[in-house]
Design a protein that fits this description.
By secondary structure, the protein is of the alpha/beta class. It has helices spanning 6-10, 15-28, 47-58, 71-85, 102-111, 128-136, 156-162, 185-195, 257-266, 273-284, 288-308, 330-336, 341-352, 381-398; strands spanning 34-35, 94-97, 119-124, 140-145, 167-173, 202-206, 231-236, 249-252, 324-325, 354-355, 357-358, 373-376. Strand 3 (119-124), helix 6 and strand 4 form a beta-alpha-beta unit.
């Protein structure tokens, strides 16, 4: 029997989709489940964007595009970067892919060599595909811990301590998945000062939630003097314009753009031409719907945080951005006799009909930080109220 590679067997996954499959199976069996496990806006894509796609279809725009993307979209991205970050980038610096996620792998592939011991520092907890892609592409993952006491940011001194001669890239994600934390301007400045001493370290700036900021401001590390050249700005259309299924993302870096383009030629060929024309409209068209969705997410954030802080054994910081809440459930686990957040997650699903993700779905638990679960509040107000009510009732009824 032919063998399967060790790499394939050890490849990580995004547990939101694993839990979602479990939820869907329970729903198929007739179980009443309220799901907070997937990071996907629950709004329809704005009509003007849908119409742009239909126009592209009717206009015969069905074929391959250049691997880097259509010129019109690359221009729209460059203009958006100037508008939102004040950075002067050229359309030639922009590469388009089928979602922002592929650029995680393309970046690792472009700045590290397989099996050479090259290191990539990434946030923990964090988007699980960071670690998965680092390992799969033969680099060494180096987690840097996000701490609740710091608003789910890392201590800059810990960053300084983790950089070695083998460090090739630092991954930053602000606003952050899964905690909703934001890196402030002062904190970003401290990171920049450390990186100035290590000129060979690239930065992968995952800014997919950059327009979903509720407290403070969105700050891109690329805006600091000398950082644009060594920063890969990664963004996309999924979260801001409710376009997750359209699969459209982009990365910006002058030096690496040709390499990203070649990776795309080797893998996906190009993003869907239809989606690309929709993306042009998303970036260039009216932004009323995007602002409305952001305002609704803010209302939901305020609601879910207030409700969670009234649940026995639960405390929850106010996430500054994205659409995730990351409550501390250490005491709740103790109250119901659950050994950890993963047991709490499973019991919430099967006994209370509430689907969430556990902290271990986003990396190893940070020592001394207790137990956490993640709620995606990309859900209706009614679902939030009922889901937290069920959780509170479950903990009260199950407490010893």
């Amino acid at each position: 029997m032919p063998v399967v590679s060790k790499r394939a067997q050890e490849l990580g996954t995004e547990n939101a989709f694993v839990v979602l499959a479990e939820v869907n199976e329970l729903v198929r069996q007739g179980k009443d489940v309220i799901s907070f496990c997937i990071g996907q806006p629950d709004f329809p894509t704005p009509v003007n964007i849908q119409d742009a796609a239909v126009t592209a279809i009717r206009g015969g725009r069905h074929g391959y595009t250049p691997s880097a993307g259509i010129v019109e979209l690359r221009q729209a991205v460059a203009e958006d970067i100037r508008r939102t970050r004040g950075l002067d980038v050229d359309p030639a610096d922009v590469v388009v892919a089928a979602g922002a996620k592929p650029f995680i792998g393309y970046a690792v592939l472009s700045v590290t060599d397989y099996g050479a011991g090259d290191e990539v520092i990434y946030p923990n907890p964090g988007f699980p595909i960071y670690e998965s892609q680092i390992r799969a592409n033969g680099a060494v993952p180096v987690p840097i811990h996000l701490r609740e006491s710091r608003g789910f940011n890392f201590d800059p001194q810990e960053l300084a301590d983790r950089i070695t001669p083998r460090t090739r890239m630092l991954i930053l994600n602000s606003p952050h998945n899964p905690t909703g934390g934001i890196i402030s301007r002062d904190e970003m400045a401290a990171i920049v000062e450390i990186l100035r001493k290590h000129e060979n370290v690239w930065v992968y700036a995952d800014e997919i939630y950059g327009r979903l900021v509720y407290d403070g401001e969105f700050v891109s590390i690329a805006t600091f003097p000398g950082m644009l050249e060594r920063t890969i700005i990664a963004d996309g259309c999924s979260k801001t314009w409710a376009m997750t299924g359209w699969r459209l993302g982009f990365a910006v870096n002058r030096r690496l753009a040709p390499y990203f383009t070649t990776w795309i030629t080797n893998t996906e060929s190009c993003a869907s031409q239809i989606s690309q024309w929709a993306g042009v409209e998303a970036l260039n068209g009216p932004q009323d719907d995007a602002r409305r969705m952001r305002d609704i997410f803010l209302e939901r954030r305020n609601l879910i945080v207030d409700l969670l802080n009234d649940v026995p054994g639960v405390t929850c910081q106010n996430p500054g951005g994205a659409f995730y809440a990351w409550p501390n459930v250490t005491e709740a686990c103790r109250m119901i006799g659950a050994r950890d957040s993963e047991e709490l997650r499973a019991r919430l699903l099967h006994e209370a009909g509430v689907a969430v993700l556990a902290d271990i779905h986003f990396g190893p638990r940070v020592p001394g930080e207790g137990q956490h679960i993640r709620f995606s509040y990309a859900a209706s107000t009614e679902a939030i109220r009922e889901g937290i009510r069920r959780m509170a009732e479950f903990i009260r009824a199950s407490s010893h």
